[in-house]
Amino acid sequence: MDIRQMKYFLAIAREGQVTRAAKQLNMEQPPLSRQLKLMEEELGVRLFDRTSKRLKLTEAGELLRQRTEILLAQFEETLKEVKETEEGVRGVLSLGAVVSCISLLPNRIELFRETYPQVTFKILEGDHIYLGELLQKRVIELVVARLPFEAMTHPDRCEVLPLPSDPYVAVIPSSWTSHYEGRQSIPMKDLAGFPFLTLKTDKTTRMHEQVMNECRRHGFEPNIICECSSVAIIMSLVASGIGATIFPKSVMSSFPGSVVTMLDIEDADFQSEVGIVWLKDHYLSKSAKRFIDSFKH
Questions:
Q1: Distance, CA of 67 to chain centre
Q2: 142 vs 120, 131, 155, 222, CA distance in Å?
Q3: Higher pLDDT, 62 or 205
Q4: Which of 155, 156, 122 is nearest to 285 (CA)?
Q5: Closest-CA residue to 169 (of 74, 234, 232, 251)
Q6: Which of 14, 71, 167, 215 has its CA 20 to 30 A from that of 110?
Q7: pTM (two decimals)
Q8: Secondary structure percentages of the chain, helix, strand, coil, to 5
Q9: CB-side neighbour CA atoms (13 Å) of 238
């Protein structure tokens, strides 16, 4: 089974139909069907169940899909590494960022491209679990995330470059701020009486738990009226006067001119840890290495 056949197999596995896979591969359907038959004969197993209109991977087919994705990614990385031995820093740098860390990227990318103008970026957003899967599949090289990184990947396989910690701040509707007019801060106990919005997904809860624990340390259980996985939606709800929230301070730079008020928390010195994460056993492109280095200065 060669590289070409691996690509054929993955296309069929993704599309669930030989006809659609052939169209994606810009080839005719009969030759692709013959290639699939040859692969199954060579391996001595059925790769797909053909009992329905959609081809379904057998147990052997699913194992081959997982291994083939890794092998093809390693093959592409090897080609990229060979090419980069003679080239400068160029190409597409693919990275991921959790929703609350997007605000850390614009200035960094702007400065990076001043030095390396031939590098372009592909940025994917999601929670730790999703971005961890993309790291494993080599779809992305780096993740900018809150720490600890809550992906399914074993921590021993990850390298982490810690970034400066990010203080938490209270974010409340501007219509509520008459009592705080002229002030830059708010005591934690004042938040006890507010309807509260919290950033949380089903699988990543670290930031939510950190905020909840700080509230409890000050003797109250917050009145949570909404859990949400989107920073933008929570900010919209705060701006509409629905409730208040606590966010890392860097998040606020993504919402200039927003109809909310940001206040330091007087009696709660708690921080959100941030870092860049990548996998130890993956090849890193020159652009990825230089991007990591840019955070060290």
A1: 23
A2: 14, 9, 15, 35
A3: 62
A4: 122
A5: 251
A6: 167
A7: 0.69
A8: 45, 25, 30
A9: 30
What is the rounded CA–CA span in Å between residue 293 and residue 271? 24
Q: What is the C-alpha to C-alpha distance for residues 217 and 268, in angstroms, rounded to an integer?
A: 9
SS3 of 86, please? coil
Rounded to 5°, the CA angle 282-229-216 comes to 105
Report the alpha-carbon distance of residue 181 to residue 281 in Å, rounded: 53
**84 pLDDT band (50/70/90 cuts)?**
low
Cα 102 versus chain centre, distance: 10
CA–CA gap between residue 99 and residue 255 (Å, rounded): 13
- The label of the residue with tokens 């590098």 reads 119
**Contact (CB, 8 A) for 277 and 142:** yes
Q: How far apart are CA 143 and CA 135, in angstroms?
A: 8
Our CA angle for 101, 107, 113, nearest 5°, is 120
Q: How far is CA 210 from the centre of its chain?
A: 20
Q: Distance (Å, rounded) from C-alpha 12 to C-alpha 68?
A: 13
pLDDT digits over 35-81, tens only? 999 999 999 999 998 877 789 899 999 999 988 988 888 787 777 66
State how far the Cα of 21 lies from the Cα of 12, in Å rounded to an integer. 5
Distance CA 265, CA 192 (A): 13
99 and 125 Cβ atoms separated by less than 8 Å: yes
Q: What is the DSSP letter of 155?
A: G
Residue 282 has pLDDT above 70, yes or no: yes
pLDDT one-digit tens code per residue, 127-150: 899 999 999 888 999 999 999 998
CA dihedral angle for residue 213, residue 215, residue 217, residue 219, rounded to 10 degrees? -140
